Amino acid sequence: MPVSLTEDILILAKTYPIPSAKYAETSCVAGINAKGEMRRLYPIPFRLMDDEHQFKKWQWVNARVFKSNTDHRPESYKVYVDTVQQGDAISTAQDWLLRRDWITRIPTSSQDQRSMYLVKPYRIDSLQITPESKPDWDDDEIEKLMQWQNQTELFQESQKTIRLLRKLPYEFHYHYTLETPDGLVQQRHKIADWEAGAFYWNCVKTYGSKWEKPFRQKLEEEFSSKDLMFLIGNLHRFQHRWIIGSLIYPPKIMQPSLF
User: Rg (Cα) of the chain, in Å, rounded?
Assistant: First the structure.
C-alpha cells in the first residue's frame, strides 16, 4: 500500500470535466499545500461527489493523499475522495490581500521538472474561439458519462441525480505575449478553467445566439484590465502540451505617485 498523508490544500484550479472510462467524469484539480508545495489531485469526479465533499476555488480542503506511482510529474497525487473535508475560503477583501500572499508562493517557471507554474502575460493579444469538430459527445463518451448513474440506480447507493455533462461546443485559446529574458515571446494556450466553461453556458442562457460579445468582453477586455495570471500545467500523456488550468485575476494595484 502506498504511504498516504493528510494535508491542508488551498484549491487554485478546477478544469472543465471530461468523460472518464474509470470514473465517469473527472476534473483536473490543483492547489498548494500549507508548506507551499504544489499539488495536482485526482481522480476528482467533482459533480458526482456528495455536497459535503465538494469545494470551490480559493477554498482550503483537508484530504488524505498519496504520491501517484503511475504519474511521475512531481506535483501529481491521488486523493481518497471520501476524505475530502471543506475548510475556510479565502476572500477577495482588500484587493485580494490574503490571496496574493499565496499567489506569491506559486512557482513561476518549469525548472526542476515542474509540470505546473504561474504565468503573468505581458499583454493579451486575442481570444481565439474555435468550433469543436464534434460539438456533441459520441456514443463511447456518453457511455462513460452514464456509467456512474446506471451503477447507482442498480445498487441504490445514492439518490443523487446528475444531469449529463454538457460538452463545450467551442475551444477557447488565449494568444498572449510573454516577457522573457530574451525578449517578448508569443504564446497560445487552451483555456480549460471550469469557470470559463460555466461562464460560456451562462452567456448562452442569458444572450442566446449573441453570447460571444459578453463572453469576449469579460475574457478579453475585463480581464486585460486586471492583474491577469495563468496557472498552466502539462498533460500526463502529452507532457509537451500545456493548458491554462486556472485564470487568476486580482485587480491591478495603482502605485502611489511620487509627486
Answer: 19
The identity of residue 237, as a single letter, is R
Which residue from 194, 208, 182, 209 is spatially nearest to 243, judged by alpha carbons? 194
CA distance 127 to 129: 6
Q: What is the enclosing helix (H) or strand (E) of 146?
A: helix 139-155
- Which pLDDT belongs to residue 152? 52
CB 15 within 8 A of CB 235: no
- Helix H or strand E encompassing 66: strand 59-67
Using a 10 angstrom Cβ sphere, with 0-12 exposed, 13-18 middle and 19 or more buried, the burial of residue 27 is buried
> 190 near 171, Cβ under 8 Å?
yes
Residues 55-105 pLDDT 10s: 999 999 999 999 998 999 999 999 999 999 999 999 999 999 999 999 999
Amino acid 63 reads A
pLDDT over threshold 60, residue 157: no
